[in-house]
Amino acid sequence: MAAEESLTDTVGFLLGKLGQQANVRFADRLAPLGLRPRHCAVLELLSGGPRAQLELAKAVGVTASVVVDMLDELEQLDAVRRVRDTADRRRQLIELTPTGRELRHQTLALARQNDEELLTAISPAEAAALLHTLGRIAAATGLIAK
Predict the structure, then answer these.
(1) What is the mean pLDDT of residues 80-99?
(2) Which one of 1, 23, 103, 141 has the fewest beta carbons within 10 angstroms of its own beta carbon?
(3) CA dist 134 to 15, 85, 127, 146, Å?
(4) Which of 110, 101, 113, 118 is nearest to 32 (CA)?
(5) Element (DSSP H or E) covering residue 96
(6) 93 has which bridge partners?
(7) Which residues on neighbouring strands pair with residue 94, listed in sequence order?
(8) Of 12, 14, 3, 22, whose CA–CA distance to 110 is shortest?
(9) Inter-CA distances, 119 with 48, 111, 115, 131, 135, Å
(10) Are strands 92-96 and 51-52 parallel, antiparallel or unpaired?
């Protein structure tokens, strides 16, 4: 008799549950810095240069009011600053401060620690293959640019 199929045997279910676990662990690592996982997306996006608030909201996938809250929180940590756009004085751009750049580097180190902890059950070669495959899937679904 064949075993009955289970939802827990689907990629979507396993990725979702592992993602939840990874996010909780990452949040615990970030808490001493005064950061949450959602702040990391903003720090990462701003590492490429200043961006408008609305552009950040769209890139992160949140409403404009949510990104304002996130920026207020990051501003309190001296991680970002708002500056007037010289090309359009009605628009504010958000840029990383030196503190924000350092926080971004710290979050990357913490994310790497998180990965190491999550991937202890597989070999380094399997971990590299998993990261490559997930990157391809994320790019194919438009989650990341490759």
Answers:
(1) 91
(2) 1
(3) 10, 37, 10, 12
(4) 110
(5) strand 92-96
(6) 52, 83
(7) 51, 82
(8) 22
(9) 29, 12, 6, 11, 16
(10) antiparallel
Q: Give the CA count within 13 Å in the CB-facing half-sphere of 145.
A: 2
pLDDT digits (tens, 9 = 90+) for 95-125: 999 999 999 999 999 999 999 999 999 999 9
Give the residue from 14, 10, 97 showing the smallest Cα distance to 50: 97
Q: How far apart are CA 29 and CA 99, in angstroms?
A: 18
* Res 135 pLDDT > 90: yes
In what helix (H) or strand (E) does residue 80 lie, and over which residues does it extend? strand 80-84
DSSP state of 88: -
128: region left, alpha or beta (phi > 0 left; psi from -120 to 50 alpha): alpha
Q: For 91-124, b where at least 16 C-beta lie within 10 A, e where not — what string?
A: ebbbebbeebeebbebbeebbeebeeeeeeeeee
Distances (CA, A) of 143 to 51, 61, 84, 100, 109: 19, 10, 30, 24, 22
Q: Which two tokens stand for residue 56?
A: 């950040």
Place of tokens 């958000």: 94
Distance CA(67)–CA(42), nearest Å, equals 9
